[in-house]
Amino acid sequence: MKTIVANWKMNLGIRGSVALTKQILLALKAQKMAPEVIVCPGYLALSEVRKVIAHSRISLGAQDMFWETQGAFTGEVSPTELKEVGVSHILIGHSERRNILGETNEMIAKKVLAACSNGIVPIVCVGESIEDHAAGITIETIKKQIQQVFSLVAEQGFTNPIYVAYEPVWAIGSGQSADPKEVAKVHAVIREELRSVITGSVSVLYGGSVDDSNAQSFLAEEDVDGLLVGGASLKLRELTEIFAIAADNIG
Predict the structure, then answer these.
(1) Deepest in the core among 15, 40, 132, 146, taking most CB within 10 A?
(2) Angle made by CA atoms 159, 165, 168, in degrees to the nearest 5
(3) Residue 178 DSSP symbol
(4) Domain annotation covers residue 229
(5) 36 counts as catalytic
(6) Is-catalytic flag, 167?
(7) Which of the following is catalytic: 96, 103, 167, 193?
(8) pLDDT by residue (tens digit) across 158-197?
(9) What are the φ/ψ torsions at residue 193 (nearest 5 degrees)?
(10) How far is 128 from 151, CA to CA, in rounded Å?
């Protein structure tokens, strides 16, 4: 089954998140086959969105979290707090948090460990910068990120399911997506590298200017288990079409 993760970033308030979630539910009910769907609203909308998706096929994801369960960490949100509002999945290490907020592989590793320790499924983002891409060191960059990010998880022997989202930084929000064949090659490397550090199940997603016009080219690749969708996930028509494409590629 293919997976579609909708990352709404800092774009919708509570009312907007609830309204879009209701529309997504109706769209999925109209489809005989559907992918796994995970929606990631902002923190303030999590509780209300959870009410809408209760007893549905949609899972609730958060966009980030801190690595401690409690303490003097002003402004942060803990994994236990997210569990309390029904979060089952968590985005960790998104390129925007790495590049804008300075998150390091070490910080991301601690967040992944905290997610696994608290029964939340991590969706870990990795990807190369435009400089790495131009220098032809994409694979080396990805391998380094995986080894550093999953080292703590490997040491603890966790067997939790893991999602890794490959998002080439140069493609995020640029309208310029990567070549699907090249993406599939990177995904194969990610999968092989993960096998050397973790023993749980692995799903590898692609994210980077994904929309309804290019979703098919990515989802048709065997090594692409699904998509992390940003801007297009805010547009019901485009997102519904992506769901339909994902359903057609289930197999």
Answers:
(1) 40
(2) 145
(3) P
(4) yes
(5) no
(6) yes
(7) 167
(8) 778 899 999 988 777 656 668 889 999 999 999 998 888 8
(9) -65, -40
(10) 19
Q: Please provide residue 194's backbone torsions phi and psi, each rounded to the nearest 5 degrees.
A: -65, -35
pLDDT above 90 for 224: yes
CATH code for position 153: 3.20.20.70
Check residue 177 and give its pLDDT.
67
Count the domains in the chain. 1
* Residue 197 contacts residue 147 (beta carbons within 8 Å): yes
Q: What is the separation of C-alpha 245 from the centre of its chain, rounded to a whole number of angstroms?
A: 18
1 within domain boundaries: no
Q: Is residue 147 part of a domain?
A: yes
Supply the DSSP symbol for 177: P
- CB proximity list for 213: less than 8 A, separation 6 or greater: none
**218-229 core/surface letters (b: 16 or more CB in 10 A; e: else):** bbebebbbbbbb
Q: Which of 89, 94, 128, 193 is catalytic?
A: 94
